[in-house]
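Entry 14. Structure prediction run on the chain below.
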Amino acid sequence: MLHLSLLSGFVLAAEETSSSGGFGSLIFFLIAGAAIWFLFVGPQRRRMKAMRAQQEELRSSLQFGDDIVTIGGIYGRVTNATEHDVMIDIGNGVEMRIAHRAVAERIGDGEG
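Output returned:
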């Protein structure tokens, strides 16, 4: 009989400790999660958004004669640009049609 009363006392004490400690742990994890968000995730999302806007501006401003490089590493000169694709001369009169999103960067000022 003494064993049962001691055991029930330990169980009640453990339940009281875990219920009050659980709320404190929850608050701690919420604060830690918010700190990680504001220190790492938020700034990274802003950088990616700015990078996408910069790439879109580059792709929309392509003109005849611009020297470019594609995301695949192909160098060429723009011969025609439409809304969805770009025709580039890759040398010796060989032309390629590529998707607008495949343009990685503009090289030089287009003269040469």
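The beta strands are 67-70, 75-81, 85-91, 94-99, 103-107.
Filed with the rest of this week's runs.
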